[in-house]
Amino acid sequence: MPIIASNFKTNHTRKSTAIFVNEVNDYLKEKNILSEVYVFPTATSLDIFDTVSNFIIGTQNAYATASGSFTGEIGTVQLDEFEIKTILIGHSERRHILGETQNVIAQKYEFYKNLGYKIIYCIGEPLEIKQKGIKSTLEYIYEQFIGIDINYENLILAYEPVWAIGTGVSATNNDIENVHNAIKEKINKPLLYGGSVKSENVREISQIPNVDGVLIGTASWKVEEFIKIIENTKDL
Question: What is the CATH number of the domain that holds 112?
């Protein structure tokens, strides 16, 4: 069964998230869908949702702390209130826009690993690296594993070429297969693909060797489209 994950980024409100989650949950229940489904809402939209066991709500980000003086951040005290045990770490927007270094990311990873969280760990290369070829791409990606325990049992990887996120340009099937094959040879963990995935291309992408599912941004923010994505991959 594929893993289907939605990253809301800075989209949706508390109210619209609740509607979205309930609609997806009703669909999963009604159709008896067995795919693992994840939704990562904004921090202000986290809540305790009554969902089927294969539908998991996670946090897009949190600081490596229980609580403390970290303005604008949340920690495990806030996550525990909503029984959140799943986190995205290393997303390219955290790295490239918000300036998280590999050191900071590794510390965060270690902190949440020690608490047994399910971690979806994101890796990927910018366009100028991709243009140098597969060797440079893999070198760049492997540097994103510095300080990361790749044997952690609760780890899911997500390969997201930075140049394909929200641009409408998806990597070619060949690009995806080459990178996924190389990563899987080194690290045998579930490996998602992310980067301009939508209902029209999700089935084809999910059938590429060593693609275990998808992490979706823009196309997953409309509940009808997200349900269509799950529907198009439910039998794989």
Answer: 3.20.20.70
pLDDT in tens, 33-82: 999 999 999 999 999 999 999 999 999 999 999 999 999 999 999 999 99
Q: What is the DSSP string of 92-121?
A: HHHHHTS---HHHHHHHHHHHHHTT-EEEE
Structural domains counted in the chain: 1
Q: How far is it, in rounded angstroms, from Cα 202 to Cα 177?
A: 14
Q: Is 68 annotated as a binding residue?
A: no
For the entire predicted model, the pTM comes to 0.97
8 is in an annotated binding site: yes
Residue 201 annotated as binding site: no
Considering only the C-alpha atoms of the chain, give the largest distance between any 2 of them, rounded to a whole number of Å: 48
Range of the domain at 226: 3-233
Catalytic residues: 91, 160
